[in-house]
Write a structure and sequence with these properties.
The protein has three domains: 64 residues, no CATH class; 151 residues; 114 residues, Glucose Permease (Domain IIA) (Distorted Sandwich). Helices cover 52% and strands 21% of the residues. Strands 3, 6, 7, 8, 9, 10, 11, 12, 13 and 14 form a ten-stranded antiparallel β-sheet that branches. β1 and β2 form a beta hairpin. α3 packs parallel to α6. The protein is elongated and about 140 Å long. The relative contact order is 0.09. About 4% of the residues have low confidence.
Amino acid sequence: MPAARAARIPVFLDRVFAPREIFFSWGDRFRYLRLSARLQKFAAAAAAAAVAWSLFATAGNFLDRRNLAMQESEIARQARASAELQRDLGQAFENRTKMTKQLTAVRTALARETANRMALRGQGDAQSRRIQGLEARLARLRESEQEVIERLSAQVREGAAAVEKTIAMTGLNIDDLLAVGDSGLQPALGQGGPFIPAESFSAGTRAGSELAATVSRLEAQLDRWSELREVVRRLPLSVPLDQFRISSSYGQRRDPMSGRKARHLGIDFVAPPRTPIRATAPGTVVFAGENGRYGKMVEIDHGYGIATRYAHLRKVLVRKGQEVGHRGKIGLLGSSGRSTGPHLHYEIRVKNQNRNPMKYILAGKYLFKD
């Protein structure tokens, strides 16, 4: 700014805020009120501060509303994505059943034709052409079975890869989870089918041996995929409220009551009192009631050594031993126990060790993405 222009600013302010006298009548007398330049500047500054505060408060309210709307939109999108995933998994499982039936039919036909071929070989050269026709049909049957196996293998690999990546994002070890098992919460995976000797596939040929090995690998993939689907179904990958904002994350923080550094073993979600609290995965209620500093609390066992805790509730809506489904209502948000105000303290525990719930929430967003 040029020096001449800067020098004119104080002169301009002195003119605007020059001392003034306001005359008014009071009965039969005249009075006047003297407004000094300093008083006028103070009044103008106060008015500007009030306007600035009003604009700041309005902007903050707008941002809070927009954030809440974005959260509601994200929750709705996750719900739609979850429904689509469940539908896709159901369709994939149905396809697996159909393809398994096809494999069984092909195997049965293969065994029958192999037996016919062996019987005809003993009848001499007169049946050689029929034997050749049967062998050609056997080759076509093997090719058909191979195509079915390849399609199903590709589908299984794709589904298993997505599930394994989701589990890995939580920090869990997949093989450790499968070794722990689901604590008997689910019956063993169903298996069955007619008995067909393994020798009937090979019939002493290299092609039959390779096909038998491929079928064996596919069955192992199907078993692992089924186990992984059950594991991810029981992982707490969603959030326990429909509307919320996070007031305290997992890890170190300054304690809200003592002001000292402390470890925070969960996430605090803020929402209006009496907001419904929902289970983040299916499981069995192992605790429901008062629990010291946690206040009114619910703990759910999801199997595979995984449990979730929901603390500081206003009211508990479930009982110990009760089975709850995904997104089932288990309590109402409150401020019981050691709490400074209405909020939900949410924990995830694996083999009695606390884990960061945000990793599981982010893994759920990846799995349920559009």
